[in-house]
Design brief:
alpha/beta; Rossmann fold; 4 strands; two-stranded parallel sheet; 148 residues
């Protein structure tokens, strides 16, 4: 999704936010570091964080005219449609653009990946869904091993 966005826009800011009701595998600082490592080579992409504010307010603060969001399934569509309407009310000058992920990643979510980590042979399966820096860190967290 980020690679597609970098092809579509002259400049892409990947905004990492926090959700008070979700506990991720990685801290915000780790997510920022892993994203930056995974996106090396995409010269028009930067990674930044925002907390305790609406995404449209962050977008406005970095001069964005668009918010790029991904839609994997009908549930995402309903949620993102509602968020798009709210964002348009808050910042009508910022449009929302939706992309669908490539087929090989269409069903992938963090819950999906974490669920695999309990099954025999999971590293080989999970490797296909994660960028190399994230995969290596996930392996360390899961079993204290590094990939071969």
């Amino acid at each position: 999704m980020i690679r597609s966005g970098s092809d579509l826009f002259d400049r892409l800011v990947v905004a990492v936010g926090t959700h008070p009701e979700k506990q991720g595998v990685f801290t915000v600082e780790e997510r920022l570091r892993l994203l930056r490592a995974s996106l090396r080579g995409l010269r028009n992409v930067t990674v930044d964080r925002f907390e305790n504010r609406f995404l449209v307010d962050f977008a406005r603060s970095v001069g964005a005219r668009y918010i790029l969001r991904g839609i994997r399934n009908p549930a995402d569509l309903e949620y993102e449609r509602a968020m798009r309407q709210i964002n348009a009310d808050l910042a009508p000058e910022i449009a929302t653009v939706f992309l669908m992920p490539p087929r090989e990643l269409a069903e992938v979510s963090s819950s999906f990946v974490r669920g695999f980590a309990a099954l025999e042979g999971w590293p080989k399966v999970v490797r296909r869904f994660l960028p190399a820096p994230v995969y290596r860190e996930f392996l360390k967290r899961s079993h204290g091993r590094t990939p071969r």
